[in-house]
Amino acid sequence: MGVEMSIFEELYDYYEQQYNNKWMEGLSEISFSHLTISHFEYLTTIKNMGRPSISILAEALKFAVPSVTIMVNKLVKEGLLIKIRSEEDKRVYEVELTELGHELIGMEKNTFTEISNELTSNLSEDELEQLTMLMKKGLDLVKKSHNKK
Question: What torsion do the CA atoms of 54, 57, 62, 63 make, to the nearest 10 degrees?
Fold first, then answer.
């Protein structure tokens, strides 16, 4: 089993290195190389939630509301988020990605797709089909195992 795991670790390490290199290149091109993983965690969570209030975002991220407010304000200054006053309660602000925020998250997904394509581009159709089938099976097993917990 150790040999099989080492190939997964090697693939993970290679993928992570390539992803980080391409990602940082892309961020440098648009002057966002100073952003951290934490910034992207906020942006991705907001994208997935739609238009959460700051308190709901804090709950989802498991951070204190004042900490989330500080980060949201930084992302607003970067032009990646907008704060919108809630229609129901004028004391509450909701946050939403700007077009630039959506582009940044899209760039991250494009980087993932590009590297995945590089990793599979030299496979035959049969090999790609086998790899896909095995990865789906592995993903299903992991999901079932996770759901039991």
Answer: -30
- Paired strand residues for 85: 93
Task: Give this prediction's pTM.
Answer: 0.67
Q: For residue 42, how many other CB atoms are within 10 A of its CB?
A: 24
Calpha distance 114→57 (Å, rounded): 30
Percent of the chain surpassing pLDDT 70: 91
Of all helices (H) and strands (E), which one includes residue 95?
Answer: strand 93-97
Residue 29 CA, distance from chain mean position: 19
Please state the length of the chain: 149
Domains of the chain: 2-123 (1.10.10.10)
Q: Are 60 and 43 in contact (CB under 8 A)?
A: no
Helices (H), ranges, the chain: 2-29, 37-49, 54-61, 65-77, 99-120, 125-148
pLDDT at 108: 74
Contacts of 104 (CB under 8 A, 6+ apart): 30, 32, 40, 43, 80
CA torsion through residues 40, 79, 33, 114, sign: positive
